[in-house]
Amino acid sequence: MRSKLSKSIVVGLVLAVFSISAQAQGFWVHGKIVRTLSQADAYGGCMILMDTPIGHACPSNFNYVSLDCEGHYSRAGGDKAYTSALMAYALDKSVSVFIDDAKKLNTYCVAIRLDF
Description:
Blueprint: H1 2-23, E1 27-38, E2 46-50, E3 64-66, H2 79-91, E4 94-105, E5 108-115
Antiparallel strand pairs: 1-2, 1-4, 2-3, 4-5
């Protein structure tokens, strides 16, 4: 009985550690979009420039983030996120962007979610 309980606790701890590390694959950035960029065959097709420093493992000299409009990391691509970004930019509204710093296009980090 005691051995079974110990095994259950160990298995539970291992699963908890792996699930925590799987969720810690990105971070949120909040701010306004200062500029948008559309370019075929580079940067995932579209990018946004945030007014907030991005940091982490992303290039530190620019606050650009790719939205992956060409669909390198997702089947749907970031076209919908880019449309929302253009609307937020035109209306001068703040956005929240979830960035996966493990995904990069031309050294720039990729946003996998944009809330506006």
